[in-house]
Every structure is written in C-alpha cells, then in structure tokens.
Design goal:
The chain is mostly helical. Helix 17 runs antiparallel to helix 18. It has 19 helices and no strands. Helices cover 67% and strands 0% of the residues.
Length: 370
C-alpha cells in the first residue's frame, strides 16, 4: 500500500511588518512572494476562508514552486500524484518531489522514496527507495523511519535485518507515529530482532490503537482473543475488531466474521459471518476468501454452492494461501463444483504441501500411493 505524506502544512509563515528598517534583498522578496503564494494555495486546498478549489491551489503552488519553495514543490507533486486540480501524472509528481528532495526537504524525500518503491513515474528501485528514505529518516522524519524499518524487515534493497528494522521502528514509535508503533508491536509479538514479549507487543499496539489506527486495533484484538500478554477477553476483542472492521480493515473484517461463526463474544450467526467474510474477501484478504469458500461449500449462512466455493478458494489459492490450495485440491479430487481431476488435485495439494500444510502432505502420500 502506498503511504505518502498528505498535503504539507506550513509551520512558520514569513511576515513583513508595515514599517521596518531591515533591508529587503531581491532574494528575501522572492522568498516572501513564494511564501505568500504557498499560504494562499493552502487556503484554496483546504477551503480555509475561501471556497475550496484544487485548480486554483495548483496554480498558486506552481507559482510558489517555480520560485523554489520546497513546500510548494512537494505539494504540487502531491497534486499530480493524486490528480487533484490537475491531470494525474506520476512523472510530473516525481519531478516536483525530486526538486524539493534535492534541497533536503524530508517529506519530499520520503515521497520520492515511495515512488521508487512502487515504480511510479520511475523504474522501480528498492535501493533508490532506501536512499531517499534514509535521507529523510536521518532528519527524524517518522514516516520515512517506519518505511526504512520495513525495508530492513523485508530485506528490500538491502540485506534483511530485524535488528535494524527494530531500531528504526523504535525511533518513529517514540515520536508517537501509529504505524511504527504497530510494527514495533509486531516485532515484540514475533520476537524479531528482540526477545519475544507479548506484554510489550500489547503496550505498543495499545498506543497505536488509541490513536484510532485500524491495524493496531486488529492486532490488539487478536491479543485479547488469544490471551497473549493480557487477560483473554472475547468481548474486548470483538469491540476492537468491530471498530477496525468499520474503518475498512480487511483482516479485522475477517476476524469479526470468525467471531460470529464461532459465537465468541457474540451470539453465533453464520449469516453475519458471511457478511463480514465477504467484505474482507472483496478487499483481497486470503483468509476471508478461504473462509467464505468454506461457508459456500458447507451452506453455512448462505445457500450451498460448490461452484462459488471453488471460485473463492481459487482466488485465495492463486495468492498462495495454503488452506485454500488444500481445499481447492479437495474440490478437484471429489469433483465438487469442478470436473473431477486427480491431476489438478495433486497440483494444488503439492502447492499446499510445499508450504508445510500437514493435511496436504497426507493427501499426497495417499493419492500418489494409489
């Protein structure tokens, strides 16, 4: 997912008093003009004191940007990036981000790093993304520090290192950045780069959840559901999942569906489980797609349909979900919703077995022995 800085707020405006003995050089006059244009553009962007008008904001950001104002350059890049008041153009977004980034502006450096990571307006390059994330991170920019931590955690553009990821997550988390706090919680939950400590994971998830961050609410809900580092409570898990699910978090929607399917912390309702599984599945969550396939296969909360079950299993299986691969193999083995095919069944069982799926391994031993 793309995480880029939203429109940049001006932290300190230049003010010219009515009377002053200070010599106003051409350079200072130029800077003052750029700042004034930037401020007015900002007003048009937000509709602050004037009717909101993105095209006028773009025009004023451009005038300020051409005078070298780094904030305006960054925001003009953002307008091109999102297609606000101007035709969307990744190339032009990169151009303006780069102008500000090369002047040392941290938020522009971060945005340019995002463009390189995602291959937007430039050829994808994890090493270039790392380069720009690091420049912004060294200025204490929390978003960049978090993204740099992710690059280390996943080994993108650099040798994988949990210890380095932990350092950068910690830096950003201590600034109160919710995404970093959630990632730091995950490191403690999994014991990556640090001794596993569920209580510390709960601590960081809670800090981010209290800021309304949906992923943290989901993770904290999981800790309550399983009783990891905290007293087990289905009711508290349910509340957190519900909050995050209503914010559109796919994993929370899946987990909420599980709560309804199992009747944990709420009256069992297969139809409500199907409702939440579908919301999550439509967002591409493989667990939800597999669960929805199961509901169709068994006719739980919805009319039984093997063909629909196969469809959802296939979506998840193609994304590498081993449970879905196993279930799809089973549908082929028994000819449920598809033409029976031992060859296809073996193909999907093998894919699942390669991911150490125990049932798939047992199926392979049986079918290959026939």
């Amino acid at each position: 997912m793309k995480h880029k800085l939203l429109i940049v707020t001006l932290t300190a405006s230049l003010v010219i008093s009515g009377c002053s003995n200070t010599l106003v050089t051409p350079k200072i006059a130029k800077q003052n003009q750029a700042a004034s244009q930037y401020n007015l553009a900002h007003n048009y962007y937000y509709g602050d004191g004037v009717p909101q008008n993105y095209s006028k904001a773009v025009d004023l950001y451009r005038k300020s940007a051409e005078l070298g104002n780094v904030r305006a350059q960054t925001n003009l890049g953002y307008m091109y990036d999102e297609g606000l008041g101007v035709e969307k153009s990744d190339d032009k977004a990169v151009n303006w981000y780069r102008k500000a980034a090369e002047q040392g502006y941290a938020s522009a450096q971060y945005n340019l790093g995002v463009m390189y990571r995602n291959g937007l307006g430039v050829s994808q390059s994890y090493s270039e993304a790392m380069h720009w994330y690091r420049k912004a991170s060294e200025q204490g920019y929390a978003r960049a520090q978090t993204s740099l931590g992710t690059m280390y955690e996943e080994g993108l553009g650099i040798t994988q290192s949990y210890s380095q990821a932990l350092i950068w997550y910690q830096e950003a988390a201590e600034q109160g950045y919710a995404r970093a706090q959630t990632s730091l919680g995950w490191m403690y939950e999994e014991g990556h780069g640090v001794a596993q400590r569920y209580s510390e994971a709960v601590n960081w998830y809670r800090k981010a959840a209290e800021q309304g961050y949906a992923r943290a609410k989901t993770s904290l809900g999981w800790m309550y559901e399983e009783g990891l580092g905290i007293t087990q409570s289905y009711s508290k898990a349910l509340i957190l999942y519900q909050d995050a699910a209503e914010q559109g978090n796919a994993r929370a929607q899946n987990n909420l569906g599980c709560m309804y399917e199992e009747g944990h912390g709420v009256a069992q309702s297969y139809s409500e489980a199907v409702n939440w599984y579908r919301k999550s599945a439509d967002l591409g969550d493989t667990l939800a797609q597999t669960n929805l396939g199961w509901m169709y296969e068994e006719g739980l909360g919805i009319a039984q349909s093997y063909s629909e079950a196969v469809s959802w299993y296939n979506k998840a299986a193609e994304q590498g979900n081993s449970d879905a691969q196993f279930s799809l193999g089973n549908m082929y083995e028994h000819g449920l919703g598809v033409t029976q095919s031992k060859t296809e069944a073996l193909t999907w069982y093998r894919k699942a077995a390669e991911k150490k799926h125990i049932k798939a391994k047992n199926k392979l031993k049986y079918l290959e022995g026939i």
